[in-house]
Amino acid sequence: MTQKDETMMIQAQDLLRGQSFGVLSSHSARLAGYPHSSVLPYIIDTQGCIVVLISRLAQHTANIKQNPKVSLFVMADTSGDVQNTARLSLSCDALALSSQRVDSAAERYYRRFPQSAGYHVELDFDFYELHIKEVGFIKGFGGVCYFDSTLWLKNLKLEGAM
Q1: Closest by alpha carbon to 68, among 100, 45, 91?
Q2: Domain containing residue 143: CATH number
Q3: How many domains does one find in the chain?
Q4: Residue 88 pLDDT more than 90?
Q5: Residue 161 lies in a domain
């Protein structure tokens, strides 16, 4: 990896850690061949997976059951030129979180998003982990890099992951 790529990876990871929500896109079960997208909060777990909380009634749940391939789009805050703003597109496989990991995920998730406390018990929401396959990072004009999951996870700093 070049020094430029390493610098861009650090910036991409800082962006992912620095934001709290993104746009999840899944393959629509209702309209075959089309994506379904919506905004949702996320945390990063201690293995580097992204963890999201989705209602069992949500379209994403039906979509993921049919096809677990999803994309999470995360963008830096901007009030300027949106085309020149740092952004990530993470290609992932979405898997329901194993029952052994739900309690620890819930504790961390609700610490970051206290307004959602209890959703997985009271409102029939489930935790999903997004296993990253590839990360596309656009720093702005002329700054584009792609990282495979092995390289991304090897270099991801997880101290205090949220």
Answers
A1: 91
A2: 2.30.110.10
A3: 1
A4: yes
A5: no
C-alpha distances in Å from residue 129, one per residue of 1, 27, 32, 115, 132: 27, 17, 24, 20, 9
Cα 18 from Cα 21, distance rounded (Å): 10
Task: Name the nearest CA neighbour of 106 among 26, 51, 151, 145.
Answer: 51
Residue 160 lies in a domain: no
- pLDDT digit string, tens, across residues 116-159: 998 988 889 999 999 999 999 998 777 899 999 988 988 886 65
pTM of the entire predicted model: 0.91
- 32: domain range? 3-155
Quick one: which H or E segment has residue 155? Answer: helix 149-155
Q: Collect all residues with Cβ–Cβ distance below 8 Å to 76 and sequence separation of at least 6.
A: 15, 18, 19, 85, 86, 87
pLDDT one-digit tens code per residue, 94-126: 999 999 999 999 999 999 999 999 898 888 999
Distance between alpha carbon 22 and the CA centroid of its chain, in Å?
A: 7
